[in-house]
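Q: Two folds, back to back.
A: First:
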Amino acid sequence: MQKSDVKRQAELLAKENRQSDPEISKVFWFPNDNEVRLVELHSTIPQSDDEHVHPFFFKPSPSDDLPAPSGVALIRPDEFRKLKLPPDWGDWDSAVELEDGE
């Protein structure tokens, strides 16, 4: 799989998630060659109780144009750059904000 395919899937998921939940204020992608890794900022979810980001993981679904597995986490905006990311996700400096239009 190419990184461009993973990025395209990340952009698709970010757009669909924002459309289904307008409370998502920003979406950040953590580039990886094999998996979509997203952190979405959402002000009405509970605060983390252990200072870690906990993504939900989804299997690939090629029939839905989602060829890569994905991990998606919701955190509060005030937790951005403060919580510990999952192992192998890199650091907060590697996060790429996905704009509404992407």
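A: Second:
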Amino acid sequence: MIAVRGLFEAHLTVSDLERSIAFYSGALGLELAHRDADRKAAFYWMGGRGETMLGLWEVGASPQRMNLHIALKVELPDLLNAPRRLRAANITPFDFWGRSSDEVTVLAWMPAASVYFQDPDGNLLEYLTMLSEPARPELGVVGWGRWNDGARV
């Protein structure tokens, strides 16, 4: 078999491409790689040109929607600052359970820290950082404060 080294691209459906371009370019600051007006699609570079690509495809307004999820790899200092920066951009950060929260969530089995939020179409986006500490699956999912206040002992 061929060894997979990572995920190169992912795609999300959106109901209004212009609104989504404003969100992904403006609020998230992603670099627009290409826009295809005929196919109503936009593509973004993440991590630099040629690293990872996100495609957005307009599917129009419909009563039936599919909400998808992607996690965006970020550095720990940026993750810890993400709730404040998201709120400054009028985006609500939330925890693993979908509650509005300014605290980072830790998935102790990985372990990884994350902050969740939604795009204008309700797609679930996540900023995620893998942590260097050993995994502690017995902790389940905990807040950053609990993770750092001896929950690992």
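Q: And?
A: The chain has two domains: 1-62, 67-153.
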